[in-house]
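Page 47, continued from p. 46.
Same chain as before, 348 aa.
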Amino acid sequence: MNRINANKAPGMKALGVAVLAVTVLAALPVFAQEKKLVFRVAHQFSPNDKRYDVVPWMEQVTKATHGEVQFEVYPSEQLGKAKDMMSLVQSGVADFALFVPSYVSEKMPLTAVLELPGMSANACQGMNVYAKLAREGGFLAQREYGPQGVRVLIPISAAPYRLMSSKKSIETLKDIEGMKVRVLAGAMELTMQRLKAVGIKMPGPELHQALSRGTLDGVIFSYGAIVSPSYLLPARFVTTDSFGSAVLALITSEKRWKEIPDPVKKIMLEAAEVSSQRICKGIDKEEDDALEKLKRNGVTVVKWSDADKKEMEAKIASVTADWAAETDKRGKPGTEAVKAALAARDTR
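Result:
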């Protein structure tokens, strides 16, 4: 566990009910608080993995509240497995958690719309689309997050996902056939089906072992994730072509959110806006650096022939429509989700 305490200013004097002046830019809202607020934050990532780092958000909140709001951080699945992060905030075990919706796709099937090929060109575009859909009033907030009793504070999009192989050459589309490839959920699974590969759902922390044992032949992941301290995957081949992307978010429960004083909520939301932009810009820069690192490590960067690219485009062209239709059949508004996501992507 790591304690985040960005400001060591003295605490409030006890004068019946304590009063704290909270500074946000030039504003000075005041709220009554009898003791310091300490929030528990859980996630699956290594403390050394800075791609999805929400510590600066915590530090900004602590500083703006003169140290009266603090955080205890539980990284590396200390409070629960990656797939359990939403349950942790729903049950109150954690106040905030970094949550990957695709790990519980049975509960969050509509968020998979953001994994579809071509939905975003980079992390910042993906984050902006996700923010429009998942924050208060958005399509996913109303149809998926609200019914689960959770709220998105910091939406995060990964960089475009590529195909990585640990042993087998993937220099042609034919090489992919029959491969056991880790996917996130329905959208990526459909893509792999079109390419005659076998999609296997698996949380990130299990990937290194699965590749080493041969349970998996490859994964669909970003360059940054492949080389990150959380995974350090044994890559031998990576593609330059994208296979969609993924999202995650810092969430809290609606129940816990209602308990937080309004001035603190305001500070948290303003800090969240800053963090969303900082994280996505960092991810996009990291992709270039990670690709260079992969090259230095002797990984073969595969650029498919024009013929293979054209064939791939043809095979996955129907993935979006098929995903929407299949989701509709399960009683979920997949077609509406696609329309909402495209509208969010194509409008400023």
